């Protein structure tokens, strides 16, 4: 796969100046591959059916969120495929078509409307190579992009979230997180990040996960929630 595509991101010290409204958080952190991008469809196509894709993806989520210390993302994807009985051609197809990931409807508009008011960051369970390629598919200048490979651990370990906040120069109390899976809520609860769960496909909450402030099948409520964040 070509690695020429690079995400545009800058350190907090050199980030473009935003004009924060008193109601907005100072920063919003996003899960990437579930909250902003429709990776489910890509996995389904690589697996050969929606059922096979969802089973594979569920196993991948279980492995990565239970892994802790970073194991190469591509190896985790292959292991998950093997665990559910899929051939090696499935993870190969997923990687070969990686740049066909598409944003969920409303994602680009939400990011464009948020950027003048707060810093924006990605915290993703992915390799540096594939994570930054995926982040670059969204039309936004990210202030910070943190991958599991960079952090050395997978979410929901608190380290990736805290690394993003440190690079942004923002306290957890002044930031929010947009999750794509309820596994993230284990980490955001520890760090103290108020959370919006974009539960696009109707996932069942993982047992023991702290409930988010908002659960929605779309991003429609994100802007109103962000505007009244400090209310």
From TrEMBL:
UniProt KW keywords: Hydrolase
Record bears the keyword Cell inner membrane: no
E.C. numbers: 3.8.1.2
TM region positions: none
Enzyme class, broadest EC rank: hydrolase
Gene Ontology molecular function: (S)-2-haloacid dehalogenase activity
Protein name: (S)-2-haloacid dehalogenase
